[in-house]
Structures are given as C-alpha cells and as structure tokens.
Amino acid sequence: MGSRASTLLRDEEIEEIKKETGFSHSQITRLYSRFTSLDKGENGTLSREDFQRIPELAINPLGDRIINAFFPEGEDQVNFRGFMRTLAHFRPIEDNEKSKDQNGPEPLNSRSNKLHFAFRLYDLDKDDKISRDELLQVLRMMVGVNISDEQLGSIADRTIQEADQDGDSAISFAEFVKVLEKVDVEQKMSIRFLH
Amino acid sequence: MHPPAGPAASPGPAAPPAGAELLRWQWQEVQVPCLVAAWILVASLAKIVFHLSRKVTSVVPESCLLILLGLGLGGIVLAVAKKAKYQLEPNMFFLFLLPPIVLDSGYFMPSRLFFDNIGAILTYAVVGTLWNSFTTGTALWGLHQAGLMDPGVEAGLMDFLLFGSLISAVDPVAVLAVFEEVHVNETLFIIVFGESLLNDAVTVVLYKVFNSFVELGPAHIHATDYVKGVASFFLVSLGGTAVGLLFAFLLALITRFTKRVRIIEPLFVFLLAYVAYLAAEMVSLSAILAVTFCGICCKKYVEANISQKSRTTVKYTMKTLASSSETIIFMFLGMSAVDTSKWAWDTALVLGTLLFILLFRAVGVVLQTYVLNRFRLIPLDRIDQVVMSYGGLRGAVAFALVILLDRDKVKAKDYFVATTIVVVFFTVIVQGLTIKPLVTWLKVKRSDHHKPTLNEELHEHAFDHILAAVEDIVGHHGYHYWRDKWEQFDKKYLSQLLMRKSAYRLRDEIWDVYYKLNIRDAISFVDQGGHVLSAAKLALPSMPSRTSMSESSVTNLLRESGSGACLDLQVIDTVRSRRDKEDAAMHHVLRGSLYKPRRRYKASYSRHFISPDKQERQDKEIFRQNMKRRLETFKSTKHNICSSKSKARLKEKGRKKKDISLTSDAPNGRTHRGVPWQEAAPVLVMVSSEEEESDSSETEREDDEGIVFIARATDEVLQGKATPGSLDVCPSPCIIPPSPTLAEKELPWKGDQADLAVYVSSETTKIVPVDMQKAWNQSISSLESIASPPGIETGPQHRRFACPVLEEQPQSASQAMPEQISCFQFPSHVSKSGRSLSDSSPDGVEQQELQPLMASEEQGRALPPAEPRRLMFSRASHI
C-alpha cells in the first residue's frame, strides 16, 4: 500500500483516493508532489516533524492541534491516503454532490464531517464532549496574552452556557452542530484546491 | 398633505423701506442656510409622514416615495415661481450630499464579508461596468445609425459612449436605499453594494475620458489617448484608494491621542473622512473610493481608540447624515425632473436605453458569474444572478454626471438628460417596487439577522486558523494564507502603532464579542429590570434570591465583563450575596421612592431640569397616598414624618435591627465581600502602571459608566433569570449570610452627610447601585438616556475613590466604627495578595494620585444639606 516517495502514484491508487475523497486526478497528483516534498524522510509517510517544518504552521495558534488531526489514533506516521482523507474535509461541496447525497457513505467534505473535524480539535480526550478545560485550552491558544485567565474562564463559561442544552456543562457534538447551524460552514470550512 | 414648503417656496421679499425701524427683514442674509434647513425639514417631515403607515412603506421603498414627493413639490414650485427652482445641483450633490452616504456605507461595511468577496466585487465593478458602458453606448449608436432616432439627436459614437459610461454605473445610493429594505442574504448584498461603490472609479474615468474625447472631437484622438485612458483608470482607482488609506491611517493615529479631548473625537472621524473625499476630488481621483476605503480601514482602530460614547455618537451622526442626504437626494431628483427646459424627449433613445441597460447588465452578470464561479467556493446560483441583474439600479450619480455635461460640446445633452431621468425613475421606482416581490417569489436566501453568539465567533475563529493551516500544509498560498499574513502584520505593527496601548492590550476579537454580548444582555435586562424594580417596590421578598448559583457562569461572566473594558469592577462584584443584593434593591426602592425635600433638586443645575416634573409627580403621589392612607384608617403611630413610605421604611428598620444583632458576624461578611476587590485591583493596576494608561483609564472609566451601570443592573436581574425558581427562599434577613454593617452604612451614605467619608469608604460597593438607581429612576428607560444623566457621573467615581479613603484615612474611619473598618480593610488587602500582590504598590500610587480628586469629590458630595431625619435614622441604626 505504501507508495515510495520516489515512485509516482499508481493509477489504481489514484482511483481509490478519488473515490474516497472526491479529489480530481490532477488535484491528487498535485497534492502528492506536495506530500513528497514534505516527506523529508522519504519513506512514504509523514511524521509530526515533517509537518512542523512548515514555517507558517509553527506560528498558527492551532497548528499543533491541526497536525495532530492528521494522525490516526495512537500513530505518529501518516501515509498519503490518510493525508488525503484529512484534506478531503476541506474540499468545497460541489453542486453535483448535493444531489447524490442519499446513497452511499457520507462524503468526507459534508457539513457534518467538516464540523466534526473542528469538534475533534477541541475534544482532546475524545469523549465526544468539549469540557470547560478543553475549551479553555483552545481559547488560551487563540486569544492574546492580554486576556487574563479569569476573563478566559468567563468566556469559556459563557460559551458553554450558550451551547449547552442538556445542562452537563460541556458541549456535545450535537450541541456543537446546533450552535453553529446558522454558520455557513460549507464556505467557512472549505478551501479551494487548485485543479 | 405634505408639509408646506414654507419659506423655501416663497421668493424672498425685498427689504422694507429705509428709516427708523424696530425690526428689519433680513431675508437676504439668511436665505441660503434657511433654505437648506427648510428643505431638510421638509424631507424629514415627509419621512415621518411616510412611516405613519406601515402598509405603504412595507410595499413601496422610501426612495420611490421621496421621488414622487419631489415631483409633487417640484410641480408646486413650478406653479408658484413660474420656473423650475431648487434642482439637484451636481456640485451640491458631489460635495455635500454624496460623501456622508459613502462614508456611512464604508464605515459600516462588514469588512470581513467585503474582503471575502473582493474578487467578485472587483470583477463586477470593473469588468461589469466597462462591459455595460461599451455595450450600451455602442448599441445606442447602432440604433442611431439605423435611423431609428430623431434626427435632432446629434451624437456620434463618442457621445453615446459617454452617455453609456454615465448611465451604466450602478448607483450606491439607490442600491442601498432599495436593498436595505429587501434583506437578501449577505453575500448577495455585499456583491451588489460593493460593486456599486467600487465602480465609481470606472465611471469617473470613463466619463472623463469620453468627455475629453468628445471635446477633442473624434478627429484629434490619437492612440496615445487610449493608452492614457487606460493608465488614468489605474491612477484614478489606485490613487483614490491610496488617498483613502492614507487618511484612514492619519485618522487612526489621531484618535490614538484624543484621550483628553474625548468630546471632539467624533469630529475627527467626520472631518478626516471628508478631507479625504475633498483631497481625492481635488486631484480628480476617485473620491468615492477614497472615502469608502478610509471608512473600511480606519474603523477597527478608531473604534478601539475612541470612547464608547464617541462610538455611539459617530454611529448615530453618520446614520443621521447619510439618511438625510439620501432623503434630500431622492427628493431633489424628483424635483429636478420637473424642469422641462432641460428635456428633449426621444422615444427611441429612451426605450433603447432602458432595454439595453437591462439586457446588457443581465448578460454581463451571467457571463461574469460563469467565470467567477469557477473560482468561487460557493458558486452564485441562477437566482442570485437574477437578483444581481435586476438590482442594478441607477441613481443620482448618473443624473449629476449628465447635468454636468457641456451643452456646447455634447449637442444631445437635453436628450441624454431626459433619458437619464427616465432611466433613474424607472430603475428606482419600477425596479425598486418589484424587487421585493421578486425576491420573495424567487425564494432568494434571505439574511437571518440573528444575534452573534460567542460560539459562532469562537468557532469561526478556529475555522480561520484551521483553513490557514490547511493551506500551509497543502502549500497553496490562497486567500486564507494572505489573510493570515495580514492579520499577523496588523497585530505586530499596525495595531501597535495605531491603537492606544490600553486598547491594544485589551483587544481581542473573541473578547470583544463576549463583551458586546454582555452589554447587550445587560441592556435588555436593564430595560426589563427598570420596570420590574420600580413597579414592584414592595415586592422585594420575591426578588430573585442569590444562592450558590451566584457563582454560576452568568454572574461570573458579567462580573468579568467589567474587568475588560471598564474598571469599575466593584459595581458588578458587589452583588455577591443575596443579602447584598437585597440591600441594594431595598436602597433602590428607598432611594427612588422616598420623597425628597425640594432643595435637594437645587443642588445641581442639571438636576434642576428634571425637578419640576419630578416634584409635581411627587406632590401628586404624596397627595394620593395620603388620601389612601386616611381611607384605610391608618392606625400606627410609629410612622413619623416620612410615613408615606411607611411600609418600606418599616421593613428597612426591621432589617436594621436584625442586622445589628448580627454584627458579630461582620468579619465573615467582610471577607466575602472582600473577594470582589480581588478582581478589581489587577485591572486598575494594570492600567495605571503606565502613565498614559492612568489617564486613559480615568477617561475610559468615565466614558464607560453607562456600561458599568448596565452591567451591574443586569447582574442583578440576570441573576434572577439565571436561577429561576431555584431556592426561591423568602429572603428574610435572618437566613441571609450576614454582612450587617453594610446595610447600616448604606443609609448614612445615602443621606449625603458631611461626615460621610467613613461610611462611603467602608461601603463603597453599595454606593453605585444606589446612586445609579437614583439616576435611573429619575428619568431613564433607554440606554441613551442612561448614559447621559449627570446623576450617574458621581456614582462610579465616588465608589472608586472611596477605596483610597478607606485605606488612607483609617483614623477618621475609626472614629465611627473602628473594628468594622479594620475588618473590612483586612480582607481587601488579603484578597489582593494572591494574584495581584505585586500590583498593590502601583495601586497605592494611583490612590495617592486620586486622593485630591477624591477629597474634592467628597466635599462636593457633602455640600448638599443633609436630611436631618435620615441622618438621625441612620445614626440610630449604628448604635
């Protein structure tokens, strides 16, 4: 399965990825070359260090969380399939995809999957709930140092209070979806991949 | 039916005969301003009349009504004066009427949305306008060549292109007027509206280029002139933008240093924006672009720098100016149409123009959207395109431009004027009337104006970071990459340079949203709470109780919200226990409803304004209550002079007694109450640590008093909401966690006694609610009025200064009640020890600084004569 860094992708592999992620052929090859250029170890997988070498990512407040999102549970290597699977979350939803939604598995770039990706960034302990502590950690990363801990705490409290419906002082995924229902997630969680 | 045109309609009579005269008719001197004022008045009154009927305005856009009104007025003027007067002069339009509208739309432009769609906006604005101009111009010329037009229309290709350039630009004023009432979704709105603003550069350039071509004559145009035309487009648009950015920068920089002259802050905003407009106009750059970008870019920094009151002022002034400009523009458009001397009708030209602008706009939109959709994340669908095509309204800009044409050079000017008027009227009236039903019929996605939530803000922020990271990983430097870069640059350099240090440090978007949400909540709760409190004077026992939930999020949040921008934390913090809150509420009630001796009102000038009304009410109330009391066979003799409030007083008295009995518990209560100080101190200190900040903290606090007040009141009410039904214990004093000394000292303080300092200082936290409530009760029900009354002013300051008093004049304090003071003082220090131990010394410094102020304040407060009765009463409670 693992493709050599030096070799090109096999056609059947591309087909599989295409089917799974919905990327076009040219997008896949383009991303594959990016993948190989990131892969300094040249072993067909990316490690955390490979990601951390991207300079802009180092200054992204959520950079580490996002890097982690690329790695499956408990692993510290990600192959091209996994890489593409994660990126597929950010593919914009196209018109022809809206119609054929009913049959087959939900595409990776569906609204729900996009939201779930974001949700998992918060949910460190993977209990399907964003607790106050988890929220605080993310807040701490995103806001400037000028905001005091108390202020952050109150923001977190209010955020949870706003979203919390069942009174467990945590945000479940359902509550997360509900609170963002008016947000244009399709647009705000999509980037344009070059064709 | 319409308000009479008044002086405006009647020509100014000649001056009366010479000789000794008591009064002189000086119409000539005041004519111009008087006319201006009269027209504004007429237009504004007309607006009121329109909005008397909801039915009419919900169907007919205001702009249509105004144009029709203008037509009517124009007819009257024509009939009276026998000639058309009061036309829409291009100079007046471009120099005075247009800038406010453009500034308003630029300043309040949702910048994120705007820049998210900047590609589409620019395409439609530049390519679309070019396309419209050329196709319309050429098609009309073709019509002319085909001999369909009246031979009187002497115009060549250049004339028609010139006409095409001025008639094809979508007009921001008209678009705004119509689309604001339609409420289509934000993306659609921003594209149409952004286009109408940004196409100004294209319009201006095309207009000027073709105008010069017409003047030169087709024979003398060289190839270099075309190149110059293209070059001038870039110069005009980029130059205009640069001027706008320059002035935005200046404006932001200036507002950074206005902390001592808060009162003229709004002036700077208007002045610099206007100067930007004039400067761009002066060098014939695109003035609309200049003001638009000035508004868009300066907003972030200006809003951070200026005070809350200035923000409100800027907002309302801008809206007022823009709305009156718009009103006048449409009214004068209508009036100008009456002037038949400018008219030369040609059916083919008029119909052709109407057809072509509609047709070519639709074609242009479809073509451009087809291209754009290949690059857009969310493609614009067919319905969007229909609305965009149909929403291309023409307006006053086209009219002003066509009036500006030189009749000697452009022979067909009269025809063009007539056609422009018809086109403008058609688009504004017919399209304006039908676009609403069309939008409904097509089921265009409407904008849902929901309140922003903290979650949305927070998660969208996270989305931005995620997208930027993904773009980095993918290695594709797209929009998010550059936005991220820009934000970092802005944070590192621009904001540091352009924002006040205090504002910069406290600045965070999530925090801002959070803060605004709290304020909004506060306002709504105050609005409700105001009635609740005043109506339910005696319903205190049912006041929402403070239970363990008092530490729950809402309260915390509200408390914290104080620490963000306003430094008067104590206000919010006070209400920690139910006991406190009740005391405060009780004081509100007493404060608000105890009748006051008249002279109180004369204590300050501003209060004097309110006094007659209030006294009258008070007299009536006393009378009524007296009668009622007699009827009810008032039986108790222990009510003394103030017995009209007997119930409340009794209650208070009873409480006092119980309180006294619990005095021994005071330390506990104190410690509890000391906690709030903990939160207060760091903020104060942080701000005062820098010289600049100590100033700004002061001014800012002053400015934010309204908020403070709100937040506090909300706290109280919100609490009630947050714990509905939870432990609805009857808050009788004995259950309440004791802090009895507080209650005792409230009244003395309230009495404005001369030896107040002690009480004030020890009871700082109580004062605000009382004072504010007073102000509140005096006149306020809405936020605006909350901010203004002078009664509020004393509250927060007083409270704040009170703290130093306590700590620095222990001896005076000890005279009254030594042990209580000490126990109060202690916790307030202890409580600071945790997080803010290191901060305590600057705090002390600030206290010293404030000391003189405090003293004068103290004296000022002591000046009003005390109320003997109350004094005695409170004294009694101490013993």
From TrEMBL, chain A:
Among the GO molecular function terms of this UniProt record, one is: sodium:proton antiporter activity
InterPro entries given in the database record: Calcineurin_B_homologous, EF-hand-dom_pair, EF_Hand_1_Ca_BS, EF_hand_dom
Record carries keyword GTP-binding = no
Which Gene3D superfamilies does the record cross-reference, listed alphabetically?
Answer: EF-hand
Pfam families, sorted: EF-hand_7
Gene Ontology cellular component?
Answer: cytoplasm; membrane raft; nucleus; plasma membrane; transporter complex
Localisation per UniProt entry? Cell membrane; Cytoplasm; Nucleus
Q: Which residues form the EF-hand domain?
A: 26-61, 110-145, 151-186
GO BP terms in the entry: negative regulation of calcineurin-NFAT signaling cascade; negative regulation of protein import into nucleus; positive regulation of phospholipid biosynthetic process; protein transport; regulation of intracellular pH
Q: What keywords sit in the KW lines?
A: Calcium, Cell membrane, Cytoplasm, Lipoprotein, Membrane, Metal-binding, Myristate, Nucleus, Phosphoprotein, Protein transport, Repeat, Transport
User: What superkingdom heads the lineage?
Assistant: Eukaryota
Q: Which PANTHER family does the annotation name?
A: EG:114D9.1 PROTEIN-RELATED (PTHR46002)
Family designation: Belongs to the calcineurin regulatory subunit family. CHP subfamily.
Protein name per the record: Calcineurin like EF-hand protein 1
UniProtKB/TrEMBL annotation, chain B:
> Per its UniProt entry, which superkingdom is the organism in?
Eukaryota
Principal location listed in the UniProt entry:
membrane
Q: What is this protein called?
A: Sodium/hydrogen exchanger
What's one GO BP annotation on this UniProt entry?
regulation of intracellular pH
What family is this protein classified in? Belongs to the monovalent cation:proton antiporter 1 (CPA1) transporter (TC 2.A.36) family.
Bias (Polar residues) = 832-841
Ranges where the Cation/H+ exchanger transmembrane domain occurs: 40-441
Q: Where is the composition biased (Basic residues)?
A: 646-658
Pfam families reported in the protein's UniProt record: Na_H_Exchanger (PF00999)
**UniProt region (Disordered), positions on chain:** 643-674, 832-879
Cited Gene3D superfamilies: 6.10.140.1330, 6.10.250.2020
User: Which sequence ranges are marked TM in the entry?
Assistant: 30-52, 64-81, 93-109, 121-140, 160-179, 188-210, 230-254, 261-279, 347-367, 387-405, 417-439
Q: Which PANTHER family match?
A: SODIUM/HYDROGEN EXCHANGER, SODIUM_HYDROGEN EXCHANGER 5
